[in-house]
Amino acid sequence: MLVGEAGGWQVAPSRINMTYTLRRLETYDDYKACERLQGQAWGFSDPLDVIPLTNLVTAQKWGGLVLGAFDEGGGLYGFCYGFLGRDPGGRLVHCSHMLAVDERARNMGLGARLKWAQRDYILGQGLDMIVWTFDPLESVNACLNFGKLGGLSDDYVINLYGETTSKLHAGTATDRLTIKWLIDSPRVERRAAGEVGEVAAALGAGGFDAPWALQADGWGPGEPVLDLDAPRIRCEIPVSVQEVKAHDCGAVVAWRAATQALFTAYFERGYYARECAHRSGDGADEGPKTVYLFEHGDLETDGAEMRRDGKIRE
């Protein structure tokens, strides 16, 4: 049985690969599969942590979007879910609340395809910003959100969800960064075209010259430096916070405290998070790193690569 209306919108051909088709969820079976995928992806032990069919259907009907990635047999292998909202200034935005990919389909770029298809749809609604939150210590998500998608952030929320039953959240507070995805900005247009950007490329290559506000010290963090005045600063996070957690849960708590202090201090002083990149390292002298870049300035002009006169910022 169909639920609501699917009609009127199709994913552009460039957003579809040979294995998965992206479309809005339509049937009760689609929505039930979405409930199951949530539980699998986050490892929820309490079914109340899963967003139910009734909520998903209602959001889809009234301006939200529940988008799925389906295989040829109709199986759901990924989804993203969001709804309409307003930012503190009254701006109408799309709140992208949840994205998950089945573990059998990970590391294939499916999460990014879902986000770009979400952008296509929301641009069609006439909106210019999508917002969502994520754990700033999860490096894979950070590199996707900043590096591939071109998101930005100047908002850090302490313990947003309190305690959940997800195994991914165990052992530390649910602090979150708010991503502001300016979907019609020059920055995002360039990322959509596959351009990495000189700053992001230099950060990932290790050739970027900016002072360190935080670096690793073994499994844990060093002491954060909260009083730098440079135009740009760098902050290291674990390459895999889940691996750190398995080795030393106390080190993850220390990382949370250090990054919480750093993000909140620099955001209050007019910085925003511009990039996050993974560096492979250079052998024995230096191992892999995941690095944030903070920049002092205005997120919606400087960060969006837009000058205040409306022209593209070089």
Question: Key features?
Answer:
314 residues, seven-stranded mixed beta sheet, alpha+beta, 24% strand, 31% helix, disordered N terminus, 9 helices
Could you please describe the fold and organization of this structure?
The protein is of the alpha+beta class. It is built from 9 helices and 13 strands. The strands form 3 sheets. The chain has a 7-stranded mixed β-sheet, sandwiched between helices. Helix 3 (110-124) links the parallel strand 4 (92-101) and strand 5. Helix 7 crosses helix 8. The relative contact order is 0.11. Residues 1-18 have low confidence and may be disordered.
Q: Percent of residues in helical segments?
A: 25-40%
Q: β content, as a range?
A: 15-25%
Spatial separation of the terminal alpha carbons: 52 Å
Oligomeric state as shown: single chain
Average pLDDT, to the nearest integer? Answer: 88
How many DSSP H or I helices?
A: 9
The largest sheet has its strands arranged as 1-2-3-4-5-7-6
> Globular, elongated, flat, extended or rod-shaped: what is the shape?
globular
Number of strands: 13
